[in-house]
Amino acid sequence: MKLLKTFPHLTNSEIEDILKQQRSVRAFQDWQIIYSVQTNSDKTAEEFASILGTTKSKVYYTIQSYNKQGKDWRSYSNWGGRREERCILTLEEEKTILNSLEQDALSGKVLIYKHVKDIVEKKINREVSDDYIWDMFKRHNWSKKVPRQSHPKANKEEQEDYKKNSKKIWLPSH
């Protein structure tokens, strides 16, 4: 049973002020964990987790990050979404590429993902994965159109009759 302790980067009143300023739930919960551990240093991570309604690993991770990085440990503003430094193209650039191809796609010309992949690779001068192209289609609500399984005027009874009455002879292929 390991007792948690925070380094004195901030006083209790400074943490209270930061806690009151938080607008996101995640940030509030993180600062609440830090405040609780700093004011009650005689409890374990399990006890903090049950009191605060979070997991033991979340408590450990939050305290460890705060102790390592100090008062500026929580520098991110929000979670999820597209991070621009990791993105290949911005949403606007992707949209312009797809808009330029939209007329070809709507006019019935066959548009395959490899064609779009080539255009993207020429634009950024490097290779991209197939998944990036499919994710780009999904982001911009493009759907994959495939041929139907069977003709709409097909007669199922005639097909079954043909299957039952056709000769089953195998001929050598030489």
Instruction: Report Rg.
Output: 30 Å
Question: Given this structure, which CATH class of the domain at 12-72 is correct?
Answer: Mainly Alpha
Largest beta sheet, briefly? none
Query: What is the annotated CATH architecture of the domain at 12-72?
Result: Orthogonal Bundle
Total number of helices: 8
Overall 3D shape: elongated
**Approximately what portion of the residues adopt beta-strand conformation?**
under 5%
Query: Got a strand count?
Result: 0
CATH topology of the domain at 12-72: Arc Repressor Mutant, subunit A
* Structural class assignment: mainly alpha
Low-confidence stretches: none
Arithmetic mean pLDDT:
85
Helix content: 40-55%
Tell me the series of helices and strands, N- to C-terminal.
Answer: HHHHHHHH
Distance between the termini: 79 Å
List the main descriptive attributes of the protein structure presented here.
mainly alpha, 8 helices, Arc Repressor Mutant, subunit A, elongated, 174 residues
Helix/strand layout:
Elements: H1 12-21, H2 25-39, H3 45-52, H4 56-69, H5 91-106, H6 113-124, H7 130-139, H8 156-165
Helix pairs in contact: 1-2, 2-4, 3-4
Please provide a written account of the structure.
The mean pLDDT is 85. The protein is 55% helix and 0% strand. Among the domains are: 12-72, Arc Repressor Mutant, subunit A; 91-139, no CATH class. The chain has 174 residues and is mostly helical.
Q: Summarize this, please?
A:
With 174 residues, the chain is mainly alpha-helical. Among the domains are: 12-72, Orthogonal Bundle (Arc Repressor Mutant, subunit A), CATH 1.10.10; 91-139, no CATH class. It has eight helices and no strands.
